[in-house]
UniProtKB/TrEMBL annotation:
<protein>
    <submittedName>
        <fullName>Alkylhydroperoxidase family enzyme, contains CxxC motif</fullName>
    </submittedName>
</protein>
<dbReference type="InterPro" id="IPR003779">
    <property type="entry name" value="CMD-like"/>
</dbReference>
<dbReference type="Pfam" id="PF02627">
    <property type="entry name" value="CMD"/>
</dbReference>
<keyword id="KW-0575">Peroxidase</keyword>
<dbReference type="InterPro" id="IPR029032">
    <property type="entry name" value="AhpD-like"/>
</dbReference>
<feature type="domain" description="Carboxymuconolactone decarboxylase-like">
    <location>
        <begin position="45"/>
        <end position="102"/>
    </location>
</feature>
<keyword id="KW-0560">Oxidoreductase</keyword>
<dbReference type="GO" id="GO:0051920">
    <property type="term" value="F:peroxiredoxin activity"/>
</dbReference>
Amino acid sequence: MSLLTLHTIATTPEKSKKLLQSSIDDFGWIPNQSGYMSESPSLLAAYQRAHDLFIDSSLNEEEKAVVWITTGIENGCNYTVQAHAYIAIHNGVDKKTVKALIEKTNDLSPRLLALREFTIEVIYCRGQLKRDAIDLFLSRGFSKQNMLDVVLGVSQKNMSTILNSIAGTEIDDKFKLDDLYPMDFKLHRDGKGANPREHR
């Protein structure tokens, strides 16, 4: 049983009602993550705002998927991986790219590999990003705006992956993509993400 309540519009705090309605407008239903997150109207509002800003960032759909899915894997959040695999595919990202991200293979373009590598640097930097990582990323054809937008995307996903670790958020049926990959991977206890294939 979850520590948090899976809210509906009827049960959520008053300040979260409009926020959950926006989830319905965007997805057609209230994703479980949003239902749990709505316990704190402030957190849900901050998360949704960060999401909207990242959507409008300098990164394209493939690149946003790299940041989101990589953060989900490294933070050990099964919900994030599955939800953003679904979102990426429905936004036109090739299934082969999504599968390569999930399986942590090198079957990606050099640009996406570089982005994944930098995203991991941001995830584990503990607030102090190494200058070598910055210089390498910029030398690979990315802009300073791209760099800062990665920070935004990782920050957004940190909010949700921590929330999901507290709630034990169940995967929404509509987010499941069993034809792509049975993403039921287990997680290392040291807090790092795990390659799903290591636990099949």
